[in-house]
Amino acid sequence: MQIQEVTVLNETGIHARPASMFVKAAGKFKSNIFVIKADKEINAKSIVGVMAGGITQGTTVKIKAEGEDEVNAVAELVQMINDRFDE
Amino acid sequence: MFIKEGIIASPGISIARALVYEKADVQVSADRHEDSHQEIDKFNQALDESQKQLEEIQLKTADELGEEDAAIFEAHGMILRDPEFLESVEKEISDRKVSAAYAVQIVTDRLVMMFEQMNDPYFSARAADVKDVGNRVRNNSLGIVMADLSKLQEDVIIIADDLAPSDTALMDKMRVLGFATNVGSRTSHTAIMARSLEIPAVLGLTDIVQNVKTGDMIIIDGLSGRIIVNPDRYQIKAAEDDQRGYQTYLKELECLKDLEAVTLDGHKVELVGNIGEPGDVQGVRKNGGTGIGLYRTEFLYMNSDTMPGEDKQMAAYRSVLEAFPDGPVIIRTMDIGGDKKLPYLPLDDEMNPFLGLRAIRLCFKEIELFKTQLRAILRASVYGNAYIMFPMISNVDEVRQGKKILAECMAELDALQVPYRKDVKVGVMIEIPSAAITADIIAKEVDFFSIGTNDLCQYTIAVDRMNQDVSYLYDPFNPAILRLVKQVIQASNDQPGLFTGMCGEMAGDPMAVVILLGLGLQEFSMSALSIPRVKKIIRNVRYQDAKKIAEEALMLETGVAVMVHILESMKKLKIEI
Predict the structure, then answer these.
(1) Residue B117 pLDDT > 80, yes or no?
(2) Hey, what CATH class is B257-572 in?
(3) What distance in Å separates residue B416's CA from the closest CA in chain A?
(4) Of A6, B39, B393, B560, which residue is least crowded by CB atoms under 10 Å?
(5) Residue A19: pLDDT band by 50, 70, 90 thresholds?
(6) Residue B322 exposed, middle or buried by CB count within 10 Å (0-12, 13-18, 19+)
(7) For B84, which of A16, A20, A48 is closest by C-beta distance?
(8) Fold of A2-86
(9) Is B457 a catalytic residue?
């Protein structure tokens, strides 16, 4: 299992366009991937789950992946958040 | 034959046969289905089928309208494959032993509610997407084949409850001449689609689907908002004439659109539009308006179930400001009260609502509500030329109080280091006689006046124009009104840098144009469709002549005498109305 903490910095948070980018990126991996916000685990491959997660600017979340490509999955998704979704 | 009236969503006139597009009123029941595996199989087959349909729609849309419009169906595909959606449906099927269709229905309803409750335009649109996808999967799992609009044999007017993006995507656009629906508003998908196809649409007809059969003859008039079902031949003849008239008008509009509103002797005025929603700016631009003279912000409040927040308001103001980078955008703070009520802001019933707690008076009582709006306007001000206008001002103290609250909002934004235009212009509506009479006093406190003739007439003449027994008294050419208009313009001329506009119906009345021009009105604000006609008159008159006609009109004793004088003068000068 791979897990890493990251703070969402872009203005819209993981909503709208960033949410769709995020879910698409997560979908490329075979691992089971979750966004952990407080005690809530959100399936990173679910657009509905991610958008309903209320991950706004300034929220700190953990990205967790389990599976054969877990290292790359966490790395890429954390990178995406740190790059502020190219906003 | 019968006639129905609805909401005008797209202009134009068409005559064709009806095609009633009924989405089967699908009923699903919570009956027990013990064999969950079989239902899950059914669900998976429905998903595959839906996936295929969506891919086809996406391809066709990309082909016809471009990738951008097709993107919505990609979003639909994402919802279709969404693990949260899939898991929830499968869980419902196995835990509650219900049919695939029923499980899809309840999961869809739950998601739609969740998105709708987020109270954000982006998510409301997503709610419609989820519903669209959910209905598709449900229908596929029931084996219901949706009506096909893709292969039409003749020209039709589509009659439906409402149309979703997936209904119109495959539609044979060459054959569809209009939309008439039971529900919908100017901002619904049906309305937007109709305007982009440039076909008439009349929406919100309540029960048109129930009262029309496929094959009925229909006249759809997107100018008056009427549908005539099975018209007689005289009505068809009249509609054909109107069609030709509308074509001529469109050509005329095209010629006038980019020309200035300038008189024969070089006096220039500004022609701008009245709007209620950001979407209305297209109409103003298309008709050659150079800005917004009245943005009625109360619709933002009235079209919402809860108080619209600062961000939501700011986004609306910003989009209007960005539509007119060069022209003025006069944002009137909300005019709620009187006959306009909000579900989430309870107000006592009043004996005389029009003389009671409304507009700026309500804002002074609900100060936080007012400040939210002012901060939203200030924040949006960096995106264009925002003018703030206070409605229902009756004396100079109210202007000072409004400005004081505005200054407080500015200080709040300064503290947060939020940028705004410090030079934002502040003005007032002149619609109460006491304000018109003391315009010279108020002039020292403001950057502009905008005369609201509808209320000014009502209050000056003490007449309710909705009351048929007395509405004959309502007359903007009444000498009392003309004198007040003159006085207000005079007061603004005496104060350097001030200007006076008009945003009441009189400003768009072809009969009134010459007099208002002659009285020195600098800005005429009206509904988009009136702009070309008014511009044409202005371009055909000399300012010197207009001044003379106005002076003469002010000596007359009655409104009727004024109208006769206008007609005769225009005839003499060979100006067409």
Answers:
(1) no
(2) alpha beta
(3) 16
(4) B560
(5) confident
(6) middle
(7) A48
(8) Histidine-containing Protein; Chain: A; (3.30.1340)
(9) no
